[in-house]
């Protein structure tokens, strides 16, 4: 097959007639609970481009939600996964093991923060990894309570719905939720009442007070936090917040879990976002970017914590599937070879430069934030009141889609436009995407 041309091309309206036909079939056959941001049906994707059935080539600022950081058809991923497919598709690691699983565990031990002895268990999805981190932390500590934060997102299974903050669309009508989950305030700099400068220490004090008075530190198994929040609005907790929680966890025998499912694997310009403040988590959950698009997730952490669960207590039929493991080794090879951390930092430089300039021109841009290739703008009706502006956010996303740019929204108030380009995107496409965003603002 010929290489996918790395240019935007609009052959029809977006979505075009063939996509609309497929959408009609989809509506009849697929549950409406599973929705799509942009109903164009894909034929090929790679680099910074997604091609659809109508021959449109869209610029990808979504990476399938931070998954295809190495691209959607990266050479090393395709090569290694294809070879594995030909050899065997599955044996179940719990029945007869294979080397790929072990090699992924070794790679995770090498790449994750901290030089202590580490072990890993592999799963299929991010939610499954988070659930297992909770199982492991509870087995290790003999405690039950789990602390999570405002705006946090950890998945859609029953336990992870309980851990997730936002009701619509993730939790609404799906209760009752798992018990022993407690929510603490988050250091959200843009919306902290006394200002961004006070946010880190004040929020840490409030969170620690909440834990101490309402739960009791001695009852807490785990504190789980995203070092840069994803679905909740690409919020970077104010400096000092994560170190204070890390220290509190250590002082009270609480397992500190970094959920790096969205922020990990070069996305923020470091292998893991918690490195930014030198945080060494006890456990780290990974998924999304780990395997170039194949379903794989992991819990990695201190060997003595990981080994607290008894033999047979962890696992799953497909966890650490050999094809997904081969893909992960290909993705990691690509990240190292192309130095995708450096690429993510360059993407930040280009995007923040352009978006900050737009903020000067367009009053509704309240905040420009994020790290690496995990960048967002928060839209407000008025900069003084900071009232969220989900209407403009939806309208802008729609305008970008019509021009052939895939963008996603997020945030507790639905007022954040987020940008997650593949780290291998060409700089011309990156700038063209930003041109489309700027034109959309000018029109609104
Ligand atoms: C996406 C995500 C999850 C859930 O991962 P799934 O693979 O969708 O189950 C958990 N935590 C964070 C931070 C995520 O971004």
Features:
about 450 residues, alpha/beta, Aspartate Aminotransferase, domain 1, Aspartate Aminotransferase, domain 2, seven-stranded mixed sheet, four-stranded mixed sheet, 13 helices, globular, binds pyridoxal-5'-phosphate
Assigned CATH architecture of the largest domain: 3-Layer(aba) Sandwich
* Gross morphology: globular
Radius of gyration, whole Å: 21 Å
Work out the oligomeric state of the chains in this entry: single chain
Order of helices and strands: HEEEHHHEHEHEHEHEEEHHHEEHEEEH
How many domains is the backbone divided into?
A: 2
Count of DSSP-assigned helices: 13
Helix content estimate: 25-40%
Distance between the termini: 40 Å
Chain-averaged pLDDT: 98
In CATH's first tier, which class of the largest domain applies? Answer: Alpha Beta
Task: Indicate the structural class.
Answer: alpha/beta
Would you tell me which CATH topology of the largest domain applies? Aspartate Aminotransferase, domain 2
InterPro entries: 4NH2But_aminotransferase_bac (IPR004632), Aminotrans_3 (IPR005814), Aminotrans_3_PPA_site (IPR049704), Class-III_PLP-dep_AT (IPR050103), PyrdxlP-dep_Trfase (IPR015424), PyrdxlP-dep_Trfase_major (IPR015421), PyrdxlP-dep_Trfase_small (IPR015422)
GO molecular function: 4-aminobutyrate:2-oxoglutarate transaminase activity
Enzyme class: transferase
Pathway: Amino-acid degradation; 4-aminobutanoate degradation
């Amino acid at each position: 097959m010929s290489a996918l041309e790395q240019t935007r091309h609009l052959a029809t309206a977006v979505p075009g007639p063939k996509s609309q036909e497929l959408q009609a079939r989809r509506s009849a056959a697929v549950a409406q609970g599973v929705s799509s941001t942009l109903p164009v049906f894909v034929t090929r994707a790679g680099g910074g481009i997604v091609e659809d059935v109508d021959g449109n080539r869209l610029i990808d600022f979504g990476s399938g939600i931070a998954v295809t950081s190495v691209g959607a058809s990266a050479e090393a991923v395709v090569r290694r996964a294809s070879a594995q497919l030909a050899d065997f598709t599955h044996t179940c690691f719990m029945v007869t093991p294979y080397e790929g699983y072990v090699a992924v565990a070794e790679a995770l031990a090498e790449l994750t923060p901290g030089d202590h002895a580490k072990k890993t268990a592999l799963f299929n999805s991010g939610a499954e990894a988070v659930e297992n981190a909770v199982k492991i932390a509870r087995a290790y500590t003999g405690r039950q309570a789990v602390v999570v934060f405002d705006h946090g997102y950890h998945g859609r299974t029953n336990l992870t719905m309980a851990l997730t903050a936002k009701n619509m669309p993730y939790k609404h009508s799906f209760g009752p939720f798992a018990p022993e989950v407690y929510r603490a305030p988050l250091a959200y700099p843009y919306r902290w009442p006394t200002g961004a400068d006070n946010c880190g220490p004040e929020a840490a004090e409030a969170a620690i007070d909440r834990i101490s008075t309402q739960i009791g530190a001695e009852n807490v198994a785990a504190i789980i936090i995203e070092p840069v929040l994803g679905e909740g609005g690409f919020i970077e907790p104010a400096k000092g917040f994560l170190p204070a929680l890390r220290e509190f966890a250590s002082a009270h025998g609480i397992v500190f879990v970094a959920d790096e499912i969205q922020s990990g694997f070069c996305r923020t310009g470091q292998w893991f976002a918690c490195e930014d403040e030198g945080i060494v988590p006890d456990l780290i959950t990974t998924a999304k970017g780990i395997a170039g698009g194949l379903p794989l997730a992991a819990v990695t952490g201190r060997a003595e914590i990981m080994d607290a669960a008894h033999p047979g207590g962890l696992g799953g039929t497909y966890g650490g599937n050999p094809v997904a493991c081969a893909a992960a080794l290909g993705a990691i090879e690509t990240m190292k070879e192309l130095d995708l951390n450096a690429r993510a930092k360059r993407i930040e430089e280009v995007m923040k430069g352009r978006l900050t300039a737009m903020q000067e021109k367009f009053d509704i841009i309240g905040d420009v934030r994020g790290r690496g290739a995990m960048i967002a703008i928060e839209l407000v009706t008025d900069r003084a009141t900071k009232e969220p502006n989900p209407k403009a956010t939806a309208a802008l996303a729609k305008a970008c889609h019509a021009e052939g740019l895939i963008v996603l929204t997020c945030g507790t108030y639905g007022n954040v436009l987020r940008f997650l380009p593949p780290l291998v995107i060409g700089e011309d496409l990156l700038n063209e995407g930003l041109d489309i965003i700027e034109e959309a603002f000018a029109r609104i």
